[in-house]
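Here is one chain, start to finish.
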Amino acid sequence: MVITVKFYSFYQNLAGKESIQVQMPDHSTLGDLLDTLKELFPQLFPEAEKALFIINQKAAVRESVLNDGDQVLMLAILSGG
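Its structure:
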């Protein structure tokens, strides 16, 4: 199955691109996708472990199951005061 990953904020700078399409096995989870991204973009880690992930406009966790055609957003969590 094909998953589109869109990088935002400094993740985009670290990856060197706005988005990629990743081929993943059926029944893969967000955690599996992160393992693949770690191989493709080692410079994203360990920072990417702290990212907020959105799958098809819904917040996701490592155990979230992916489906063909899903769009995964990698966002930086910001705080301030």
